[in-house]
Amino acid sequence: MITDSDMDAVFHALAHGVRRHILDLLREKPGQGVGELARGFDVSRIAIMNHLAVLEKAGLVISEKDGRVRRLYLNAAPIQMIHDRWTDEYSAFWAGRVTGLKYAAEAAARTATKGKDPT
Predict the structure, then answer these.
(1) Which tens digit of pLDDT belongs to each residue from 44-53?
(2) How is 29-85 classified by DSSP, letter by letter?
(3) Residue 2: strand, helix, or coil
(4) Residues with Cβ < 8 Å from 33, sequence gap 6 or more?
(5) What is the pTM of this model?
């Protein structure tokens, strides 16, 4: 069970765009080193390390030493636990269907507007 304190840490971590982008990058390429990850941002390595500390405190990033490199991995379990707190099996099914419908409608709208003259 996730505690209120745990949820506060997760929501705080997710509240910053750079931290969300870090999670996206770790999802796309698990096991990146800190240096490799930091090269993708226009902020200092120290700033990225500070963001990583917040993400690790929330349990959203797991790091492990590999020689001189610290490998980073996304841990989506805290987000799933928050999701599970407010949804049951039935509502999760329908939320997934509605989300799928939303994505399909957005894709159709983008396709319909491609190539049209905006004037």
Answers:
(1) 999 999 999 9
(2) STTEEHHHHHTTSSS-HHHHHHHHHHHHHTTSEEEEEETTEEEEEE--HHHHHHHHH
(3) coil
(4) 66, 69, 70, 71, 72
(5) 0.75
Q: In one letter, which amino acid is 110?
A: R
Amino acid at 85: R
Residue carrying structure tokens 């049951």: 88
Contact between 78 and 10 under an 8 Å Cβ cutoff? The reply is yes
* pLDDT of the residue at 1: 74
Question: If you ran DSSP here, which 8-state letter would residue 110 be given?
Answer: H
Q: Using an 8 Å Cβ cutoff, are 12 and 60 in contact?
A: no
Tally Cβ neighbours within 10 Å of residue 5: 8
Q: Supply the angle between the helices 4-14 and 17-28 in degrees, to the nearest 10.
A: 90
CA-to-CA dists, residue 116 to 12, 62, 67, 104, 109, angstroms: 41, 46, 54, 20, 12
